[in-house]
C-alpha cells in the first residue's frame, strides 16, 4: 500500500540520522555459580536424554566455566536484542568485504590445491554433484584452506552461548551435540577447538552439522574434519548437496542492470526466466552471452549494496551457499572466488563507499519500518534483500531515485 508522504519522509530522515557506531559491550559479572546451576538443571538433563553417558558429563562439565569474553553476549537473566556492535565481517558494509587483495591471496593457492587434490575433487563432484571449485572456495573462506588458527574451547563456547547468548535454545542443542561428539570419540576435548561462534574444524561446522553432514571420504573409518583434507572437502560437498544444490547450474552471473529495471524487484521470491531479464535489457557484465541452456531457467536480481555496487542474477544455488552462512556477501564471496580459480578477473561493477550502521541501529530502523507497514524480512539487524527493496520503496515514494541502500 502507499504510505503517506510525511511518513516516507520521516523514514528517509531516520535512515540518515541513525548513529553509525555501536555502544560498548556491557560489563560482565562473575556468573560461575549461575552457570553451574544452568549446566546441572538444563544441559545435563538434555544431554542425558540424547544418550550422552554420565561419565562423559562428569568429565567434561565438572570444571567448566563460562567464557564471558566472547562477543555478542547478553545477561543470563535477560535475553537481549542483537548486539550493537558488529563482530562478523558479513554484518558490515558490503564494499569492504570484497578487497581485491583477499581474492589474489586465495585464488593462486586455490589453483595449486585444485591440481594437488584433482582426483579427490573429481570423485567428490561425481558423488555429490557440487563443483570442486565451489568446495575449494568455501574451504578458503572458512579457514584459509585449513591454515587458520582456531583458538577457542569449542564446548565452552557453545555452552556459554546457550547460557547467555542471543540464541540460547539453538546453542543448547549445539552444546548437547558437542557432548555427543566427545562421547563418540570423534575428537578429544583438547582438540575440540572452535571459533568464537562455535564453528569447528577446517569446514567450520557447528557440532550439529558435524553429526548430520560430516563424512568419511578417505576410508579410514573416521569423520575427521580437523586433519583429513578428503573428509573436509567431501563434508562441505555433502552439506551443500543435502541443502539442495542443483547439479549442472552455476551460482549466478554479474550483470549490467538498466535503469528501467527497479532495484525493488530484487529477491528470490521474484524470480523469472533469464530470457525475460534479457528481454528487459539485462546483459552480462562481461559482455559474453548467457549460456543457451540457462535462458529458460529462472534466476533473480541480487544487489548486495543496492545500486551502489555490482548487480547479479542469482540462481537457486546461490541460496544453497547462503545455507552455509546466512549472508549475501558471504555467498557472493564464495561464488566469485570459485570463478577466479578459472579466470582471475575481478568484478566489473564498482563497490561504492556506503554508510555503515551497527547491527543494533539497523534493527531499530527495521522495527520502525515494520511499524510503518514495510516488509523488511524480520528485525534482525541485517540489511537483507527485503530490507534493501523496502528502502528502495521508501526512496521511490519520496520521489527520489531508488538505490535500495542507506543514503
Automatic annotation (TrEMBL):
<dbReference type="InterPro" id="IPR031304">
    <property type="entry name" value="SLT_2"/>
</dbReference>
<dbReference type="InterPro" id="IPR023346">
    <property type="entry name" value="Lysozyme-like_dom_sf"/>
</dbReference>
<protein>
    <submittedName>
        <fullName>Lytic murein transglycosylase</fullName>
    </submittedName>
</protein>
<dbReference type="GO" id="GO:0008933">
    <property type="term" value="F:peptidoglycan lytic transglycosylase activity"/>
</dbReference>
<dbReference type="InterPro" id="IPR043426">
    <property type="entry name" value="MltB-like"/>
</dbReference>
<dbReference type="Pfam" id="PF13406">
    <property type="entry name" value="SLT_2"/>
</dbReference>
<dbReference type="InterPro" id="IPR011970">
    <property type="entry name" value="MltB_2"/>
</dbReference>
<dbReference type="GO" id="GO:0009253">
    <property type="term" value="P:peptidoglycan catabolic process"/>
</dbReference>
Amino acid at each position: 500500500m502507499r504510505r503517506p508522504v510525511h511518513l516516507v519522509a520521516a523514514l528517509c530522515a531516520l535512515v540518515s540520522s541513525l548513529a553509525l557506531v555501536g555502544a560498548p559491550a556491557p560489563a560482565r559479572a562473575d556468573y560461575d555459580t549461575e552457570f553451574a546451576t544452568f549446566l546441572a538443571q538444563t544441559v545435563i538433563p538434555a544431554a542425558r536424554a540424547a544418550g550422552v553417558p554420565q561419565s562423559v558429563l562428569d568429565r567434561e562439565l565438572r570444571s567448566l566455566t563460562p567464557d564471558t569474553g566472547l562477543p555478542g553476549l547478553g545477561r543470563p537473566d535477560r535475553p537481549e536484542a542483537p548486539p550493537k556492535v558488529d563482530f562478523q565481517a558479513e554484518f558490515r558494509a558490503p564494499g569492504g568485504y570484497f578487497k581485491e587483495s583477499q581474492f589474489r591471496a586465495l585464488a593462486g593457492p586455490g589453483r595449486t590445491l585444485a591440481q594437488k587434490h584433482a582426483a579427490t575433487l573429481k570423485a567428490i563432484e561425481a558423488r555429490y554433484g557440487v563443483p570442486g571449485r565451489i568446495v575449494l572456495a568455501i574451504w578458503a573462506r572458512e579457514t584459509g584452506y585449513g591454515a587458520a588458527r582456531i583458538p577457542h574451547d569449542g564446548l565452552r563456547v557453545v555452552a556459554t552461548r546457550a547460557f547467555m547468548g542471543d540464541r540460547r535454545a539453538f546453542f543448547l542443542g549445539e552444546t548437547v551435540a558437542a557432548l555427543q561428539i566427545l562421547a563418540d570419540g570423534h575428537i578429544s576435548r583438547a582438540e575440540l577447538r572452535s571459533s568464537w561462534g562455535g564453528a569447528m574444524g577446517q569446514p567450520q561446522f557447528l557440532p550439529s552439522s558435524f553429526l548430520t553432514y560430516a563424512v568419511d571420504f578417505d576410508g579410514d573409518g573416521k569423520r575427521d574434519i580437523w586433519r583429513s583434507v578428503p573428509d573436509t572437502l567431501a563434508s562441505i560437498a555433502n552439506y551443500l548437496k543435502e541443502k539442495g544444490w542443483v547439479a549442472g547450474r552455476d551460482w549466478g552471473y554479474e550483470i549490467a542492470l538498466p535503469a528501467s529495471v527497479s532495484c525493488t524487484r530484487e529477491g528470490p521470491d521474484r524470480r523469472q526466466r533469464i530470457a525475460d531479464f534479457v528481454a528487459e535489457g539485462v546483459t552480462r557484465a562481461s559482455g559474453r552471452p548467457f549460456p543457451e541452456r540457462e535462458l529458460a531457467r529462472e534466476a533473480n536480481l541480487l544487489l548486495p549494496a543496492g545500486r551502489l555496487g555490482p548487480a547479479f542474477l542469482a540462481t537457486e544455488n546461490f541460496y544453497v551457499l547462503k545455507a552455509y552462512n546466512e549472508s549475501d556477501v558471504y555467498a557472493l564471496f564464495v561464488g566469485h572466488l570459485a570463478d577466479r580459480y578459472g579466470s582471475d578477473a575481478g568484478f566489473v561493477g564498482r563497490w561504492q563507499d556506503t554508510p555503515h550502521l551497527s547491527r543494533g541501529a539497523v534493527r531499530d530502523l527495521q522495527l520502525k519500518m515494520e511499524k510503518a507497514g514495510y516488509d523488511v524480512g524480520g528485525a534482525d539487524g541485517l540489511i537483507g534483500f527485503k530490507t534493501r527493496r523496502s528502502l528502495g520503496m521508501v526512496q521511490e515514494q519520496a520521489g527520489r531515485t531508488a538505490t535500495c541502500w542507506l543514503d
